[in-house]
Prior knowledge:
This protein has one domain. It has a seven-stranded mixed beta sheet with strand order 5-3-4-2-1-6-7. The protein is of the alpha/beta class. Helix 1 links the parallel strand 1 and strand 2. The chain has helices at residues 37-41, 62-71, 132-141, and strands at 4-9, 47-58, 75-85, 98-106, 119-123, 148-151, 161-163. The longest helix is centred in the middle third of the chain and has 10 residues, at 62-71. The protein is built from three helices and seven strands.
Amino acid sequence: MKKYQVIYADPPWSYKNKKTGGSMISGAESKYPTMSIEEICDLKIPTDKNAVLFLWATVPLMPYAFKVMEAWGFNYKTMITWRKIMSLGMGFWWRGQCEHLLFGTKGKIKAFRMQEPNFIQAKVERHSQKPQVFRELIERATPSLLYKLELFAREKKDGWDVWGNEVDSDISLP
Length: 174
């Protein structure tokens, strides 16, 4: 089985609030099947002993994202913040206009030392779709890491294997 050096993941986080918003049927649960934190943590990701993880997390679920990162064997290092433009955002306390791309490593990974900011403003597209600028940043940061896997993918991209319920997956996960 191939062992991946780059993992890019946007889990279908469950907010446990299927009835939100004015229509009482909004939120992630109404858009696609979600997974519990335990189900996400239990995924057995085939990673190389030296690997990096780019994990999307919304502000309300940040503590759980750190648990997922640890369960998958990665140590948190830093994050990149996406400020969503052209969107009011969703949320209970404040309108969430940011998402965070957590970055972690396992094994021996040399620091990228990229001269790029960790704050990116980009337009919102369809629900949960991430701007291409983030994949391009990951590819610039990891040119020497050859085996790349996108988890919970929506489409196949050149140079990446994919796994998810919206694509023909390249791998099976237990």
